Prior knowledge:
Elements: E1 11-19, H1 40-53, E2 60-63, H2 67-77, E3 87-89, H3 107-119, H4 137-154, E4 159-164, H5 166-177, E5 194-203, E6 210-222, H6 236-241, H7 245-251
Parallel strand pairs: 1-4, 2-3, 2-4
Antiparallel strand pairs: 1-5, 5-6
Amino acid sequence: MIKQHLRNGLERRRLFVIRHGHVDYYGHGIANPTAAALTPRGREQALQTGRALAAIPLDVIFHSNVTRTAQTVDLLLSQLSDKAPPVRAIEQFRELAGGPLSEEAERHETVGALSEAFYESGGEHGSARVMNGPESFAEGQRRAESALRLLLDSHHWQQAVLVAHDVINRLLLGGVMGVGPAAAGKLEQDPCAINVIDFVGQRAPADGRFCVMRRYVKMMNFTCYDTIKQATPRTSLEHLFDLDLATYWSAS
């Protein structure tokens, strides 16, 4: 357990930022990829993650209010040993808004385009977009950091979980590290990856806002099902679509 209250009225708060479990956006019968549900693999990943969190006294669990994050939360809750914490949906943590996946494109073409978008996530002032979508990486980072500010100010908790998404988690981590959206393509987020962010600060007497004095990334992209990444040698996008892009790169 972390030491919550420090000297001089300072307070330490810990946020477990978790990506949802594995999904298949090209699965049978999926008309809207944003409504994709967890696969059996994703459900098992979430159960293992829940068992890892079971002994931690959590005050609240937040999620982005889509099917795959809500299902991940339900599976986490099923493994918690103590009284289940309340659950709050914060839609502003939704995934970066990308363009539509082409029904005609081959899987490797789609993954290749997504991979390039991720790697060019900085662009000029973070102006790159996923599949020519309506939201740039910089805009997504501002939205996520605004939601994080709300989460710190409007909710009283010491240890909390946020279940969100691949790109949004990358942007949140990049913001904490002060590197901006350009780092998103280099920060991997595997399904059900656990990231730990600590905040040290105090509440302002006038309005109750939590004034952050220090923030630290304590852990990043830890997966309970593959702790040293021997079973996940490819990028998260390649694993998501079950492809090895190096095959196509070497053939081109």
